[in-house]
Design goal:
This protein is mainly α and about 375 residues long. The chain has helices at about 15-40, 55-70, 75-95, 110-135, 140-155, 160-170, 175-190, 195-215, 220-245, 255-280, 285-310, 315-340. The chain is globular. The relative contact order is 0.11.
């Protein structure tokens, strides 16, 4: 029998949980800001003097998420903890402006940039976990633990066909007695029809495949190149004129405006280089798209932090377009990469076609 070692075990659904937490938190911040602005930032109590900060509700929801995760077993509890914790974290971080300044701080202008940077770091963490999962396959003990986790879900609520297949794949061809026992247990667990989360996942996969076909077209790439170059040029010129013309004198956010200018210049340089490489193809057809990706990432990871500080949450619209174009560029790089190397399965057992597909833990 294989010796089992103690310690933390990486979960197959970790990336989906982190993504769910981050997306829920982002949605909570945007909805909260919209509702507060629509209602005129109301207060409760006599004469409007009492204000119950929604940071308190955020803390309560994060505590509820922790309790849910430690009291109940299974993936359903973890998904619930991610959703509730994401809402709580969104309410918490939305009032960060009150905690970092002595001013009447809800409207502290750098707060929007800080909130944005916080979620950028969360998304980068999810990407780091995903990359590590692809490069470091699960150990035998980790595969057994994840199969047992799915079996636990099956005991309480049954398994869908996909869940049973994924769990059996984790312990397939293993001579370990524990794995053989798990395989027998998985075979006899009751069936369960796909739930709303499972149907949503399949719908998202179909939608993504359809969008990929659009992204592979030349018009989509042309739009991406033009947007990067034009956006960077406009911001760089506007910031430079304001700086040299004295328009930033006395502006409390002049540092953020300079940051916008610098990031725009860097992104524009990458964008122009990408356009030149597209006109003059090299041995590696993916090179111009990698340059374009660097331009978009420069704006998303650096420039947008300063833009949220300057423009507040009005920068969300531009961010959404940047993310859509980044997805188009990433899809193009992925397609070009598949043309030069055969598809392979990832360490978690999913086919290459599904590696970039949206994931959700569903009701597992």
């Amino acid at each position: 029998m294989r010796a089992r070692q103690g310690g933390l075990v990486r979960g197959v659904g970790a990336v989906a949980c982190l993504t769910t937490f981050a997306v829920t938190g982002i949605g909570t911040v945007l909805v909260t800001r919209f509702l507060l602005a629509w209602a005129g930032y109301p207060k409760l109590g006599g004469g409007g003097r009492l204000h119950i900060a929604h940071m308190l509700w955020g803390g309560l929801l994060m505590a509820a998420a922790v309790l849910l995760a430690v009291v109940f077993l299974g993936r359903t509890a973890r998904l619930g903890a991610c959703l509730i914790g994401g809402v709580g974290f969104g309410l918490f971080i939305d009032e960060v402006g009150k905690q970092i300044t002595d001013e009447p701080g809800y409207f502290y202008r750098p707060a929007a940039g800080i909130i944005y940077l916080t979620f950028v770091l969360l998304v980068l963490l999810a990407r780091l976990v995903h990359r590590r999962a692809r490069r470091a396959p699960l150990t035998a003990a980790q595969r057994t633990a994840n199969a047992a986790d799915l079996a636990l879900t099956g005991i309480t609520s049954g398994l869908t066909r996909d869940q049973r297949r994924d769990a059996l794949r984790l312990v397939a061809d293993s001579a370990d007695p524990a794995d053989r026992a798990l395989a027998q247990l998985l075979d006899v667990l009751p069936d369960r029809a796909p739930g709303p989360a499972d149907r949503l996942r399949r719908t998202l996969i179909r939608r993504e495949r359809a969008l990929r076909r659009v992204a592979h077209g030349r018009p989509a790439v042309t739009v991406a190149v033009l947007w990067v170059v034009i956006e960077a040029t406009v911001f760089a010129l506007w910031s430079t004129v304001a700086l040299l013309g004295g328009g930033l004198d006395g502006d409390p956010q002049w540092g953020a405006r300079v940051g916008v200018m610098i990031s725009a210049v860097i992104a524009g340089a990458f964008g122009v280089a990408a356009a030149v490489r597209l006109r003059r193809p090299t041995d590696d057809p993916a090179t111009p798209y990698r340059l374009l990706r660097r331009a978009l990432l420069t704006d998303i990871l650096c420039g947008q932090v300063f833009k949220f500080t300057v423009a507040q949450f009005a920068a969300v619209t531009e961010l959404g377009l940047d993310l859509a174009l980044l997805w188009i560029v990433a899809a193009t790089i992925d397609r070009l990469g598949r043309q030069v190397r055969p598809a392979a399965s990832d360490p978690e057992g999913r086919p290459a076609d599904e590696q970039a597909a949206p994931q959700t833990t569903g009701s597992r």
